[in-house]
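Ops channel
N.P.: pipeline sanity check, posting one input/output pair.
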């Protein structure tokens, strides 16, 4: 019994051990099965992912294939044959040859254009030089503005013709024109100064001749008076009488004139400064201030009122002084802003009033006699002269001219008779 129980126990233990072993085996198998299931599930998931990936790759490859086929179609469309390449090469060669010919033609045209531009520049330079030479020839102290405008017109005409005339060239030409103008002004001043020197030399010679004639006349008169006094004394046998006293008085006057003429001949700067006007010729407010060394200074004024002006000059002042050139120069300097001719300072006309001139004269010389209102008789009388009076005056002058002609004819006839008598 005990053995049975022991056997049963052993059997039971065996069963239990077998059950445990079986359980362990089953558990192990179950675990392996679960692992296999998990692995299978993972593989299925991996396969699904790979399938999805492959599907995506297939789609991408399909798209790439379509793109490839499109690019190939485009390539096939752009693909050319050897014949086409040869034809295109021939066309390119022809175009290159045409371009070469065109380039050479362009070079020729450029050379011709440069040649024309060079010739045009030379012609323009010659044109400017010729005009500059012509303008220089007509340049005077009073024509600078006109000549400058003329030069600018020449330059503008060159530019209008397409000549590249720079501002520097223009300034250079205008500067040269200014230098030519200054030279012309200097030359005119030199000529005027030479003319003044010659005029003063002639004036001095004339004055010396007049003084010498005055001295000679006074000496001749003195000799004649001395002889007359000696003759009267011989005839009357008296040293004093009314006739002798008159002759002696005349002799004293002649000696005084001789001394005065001799004294004036020794004073080379002595003379008269005159202030004159000519309303009929120059209008009111225009005065001439000059100088003369003549013994009779009004002769110089009469000369100025000759045929060059329609009316005679009126004298406002006749100032006798020991240094006439200095006083004349001083008055000219004081009135230089009032000059009528501002280009030529040698002209002695001034536009001012007589009181201004009188003030400068008194400041530099002293009190002088001045005639403020000129007579201007011929001018003023001519303003109210009727046509009948004018005809009468002209008729009188014509008759006087005929009488002068008759006198000249008679004088010529008398001279001819004298010559005939002399020849006989």
């Amino acid at each position: 019994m005990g053995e049975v129980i022991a056997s049963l126990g052993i059997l039971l233990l065996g069963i239990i051990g077998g059950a445990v072993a079986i359980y362990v085996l089953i558990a192990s198998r179950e675990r392996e099965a679960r692992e296999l299931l998990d692995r299978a599930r993972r593989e299925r998931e991996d396969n699904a992912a790979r399938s999805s990936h492959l599907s995506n790759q297939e789609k991408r490859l399909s798209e790439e294939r379509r793109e490839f086929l499109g690019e190939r179609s485009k390539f096939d469309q752009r693909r050319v044959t050897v014949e086409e390449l040869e034809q295109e090469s021939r066309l390119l060669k022809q175009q290159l040859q045409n371009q070469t010919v065109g380039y050479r033609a362009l070079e020729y045209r450029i050379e011709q254009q440069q040649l024309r531009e060079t010739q045009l520049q030379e012609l323009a330079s010659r044109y400017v030089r010729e005009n500059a030479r012509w303008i220089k020839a007509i340049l005077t102290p009073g024509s600078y503005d006109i000549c400058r405008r003329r030069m600018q017109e020449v330059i503008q005409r060159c530019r209008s013709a397409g000549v590249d005339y720079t501002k520097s060239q223009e300034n250079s030409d205008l500067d040269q024109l200014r230098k030519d103008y200054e030279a012309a002004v200097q030359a005119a001043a030199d000529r005027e100064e030479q003319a003044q020197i010659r005029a003063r030399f002639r004036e001095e010679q004339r004055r010396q001749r007049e003084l010498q004639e005055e001295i000679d006349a006074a000496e001749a008169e003195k000799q004649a008076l001395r002889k007359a006094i000696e003759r009267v004394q011989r005839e009357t046998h008296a040293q004093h009488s009314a006739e002798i006293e008159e002759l002696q008085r005349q002799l004293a006057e002649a000696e005084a004139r001789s001394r005065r003429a001799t004294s004036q001949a020794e004073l080379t700067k002595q003379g008269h400064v005159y202030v004159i006007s000519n309303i009929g010729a120059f209008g009111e407010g225009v005065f001439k201030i000059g100088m003369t060394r003549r013994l009779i200074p009004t002769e110089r004024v009469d000369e100025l009122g000759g045929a060059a002006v329609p009316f005679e000059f009126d004298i406002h002042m006749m100032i006798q002084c020991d240094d006439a050139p200095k006083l004349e120069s001083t008055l000219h300097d004081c009135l230089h802003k009032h000059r009528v001719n501002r280009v030529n300072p040698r002209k002695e006309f001034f536009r001012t009033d007589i009181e201004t001139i009188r003030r400068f004269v008194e400041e530099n010389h002293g009190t002088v006699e001045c005639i403020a209102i000129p007579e201007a008789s011929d001018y003023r009388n001519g303003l109210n002269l009727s046509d009948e009076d004018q005809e009468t005056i002209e008729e009188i002058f014509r008759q006087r001219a005929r009488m002068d002609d008759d006198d000249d004819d008679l004088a010529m006839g008398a001279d001819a008779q004298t010559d005939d008598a002399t020849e006989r």
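N.P.: looks fine end to end. The chain has eleven helices and four strands.
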